[in-house]
Design goal:
About 20% of the residues lie in helices and about 25% in strands. It has about 200 residues and is an alpha+beta fold. It has a six-stranded antiparallel β-sheet with strand order 1-2-3-9-4-7. Strands 6-5-8 form a three-stranded antiparallel β-sheet, with no helix packed on it.
C-alpha cells in the first residue's frame, strides 16, 4: 500500500495557525450559546483558565478534552475542522484533493486530516498522523463504530483496557462506546487511515 504522504508535510499545510482557528471557533460558539467562560467550564469540567488559554490560541486540547468541550457546546467535534483550500468545482463534493484537506491539531503532536468531502453523510474518513511519542490523551468514548489501518509507523491501541501493538498493514475495528486511547511509541511518524460511523467524532 502506498503511504499517504501529504499529511507528513506540515510545513506545506495552509493551516499553520490551527490553534488560533480552533480557539476562535470555540469562543464564537460559546458566545452564540450565550455561555460565560464559567458556564462552559462547569458544563465540560475544565477550568476557566484552561478554556481562556484555549480560546486565545495558547493551548491545544487533547482529543478527549475536545470531545467534552464539543459536547458541552452541543456540536460534534468535527465542527472545529477548519476549512481547507478552495475546492475545484469539478470535484463536485465527491473528491478531496490532498491540498484541500481540512486539518485539526491536538496536544502532544496528533493531527487529523479530514478525507471526507463533507460531514453530512454516515461515514467520516480521516488520516491521523502522530508525531513520535505523541498520544491521544486519556481514554475517551463516544457513540458509533470505528475502524482503521496503519499505513506507516507503529500504533499502540488500548480498547476497553486491552492493549494492542499494530504495524503497517495491521487494521482494527471496535465500538466507539468502549473507552479507547492510542499513541505512537516509535521514532518516526505514525500514519493511520481511520473511519468513523456515524461521523460523531
Amino acid at each position: 500500500m502506498v503511504p499517504i504522504a501529504a499529511p507528513l508535510q506540515p510545513e506545506q499545510d495552509s493551516h499553520t495557525d490551527s490553534s488560533a482557528w480552533l480557539g476562535n471557533e470555540v469562543k464564537n460558539l460559546r458566545k452564540a450559546r450565550a455561555y460565560s467562560l464559567q458556564m462552559l467550564a462547569q458544563r465540560c469540567g475544565k477550568s476557566i483558565g484552561y478554556l481562556s488559554q484555549l480560546e486565545r490560541g495558547l493551548a491545544k486540547p487533547t482529543i478527549g478534552a475536545m470531545q467534552e468541550i464539543a459536547r458541552a457546546l452541543g456540536v460534534q467535534i468535527s465542527w472545529f475542522f477548519p476549512e481547507g483550500k478552495p475546492e475545484d468545482p469539478s470535484d463536485d463534493g465527491i473528491v478531496v484533493r490532498a491540498e484541500c484537506r481540512r486539518r485539526l491539531s491536538f496536544a502532544s503532536g496528533v493531527a487529523d486530516y479530514l478525507l471526507s468531502p463533507n460531514l453530512s453523510g454516515q461515514l467520516e474518513l480521516l488520516v491521523c498522523v502522530l508525531d513520535p511519542g505523541s498520544d491521544s490523551g486519556d481514554a475517551y468514548s463516544h457513540r458509533g463504530e470505528e475502524a482503521g489501518v496503519v499505513i506507516r509507523g507503529t500504533l499502540e491501541l488500548w480498547v476497553q483496557g486491552k492493549h494492542f501493538v499494530l504495524n503497517p498493514g495491521d487494521s482494527f475495528s471496535f465500538l466507539s462506546t468502549e473507552p479507547h486511547r492510542y499513541c505512537n511509541p516509535g521514532l518516526v511518524p505514525t500514519e493511520v487511515v481511520w473511519a468513523i460511523t456515524p461521523p460523531t467524532y
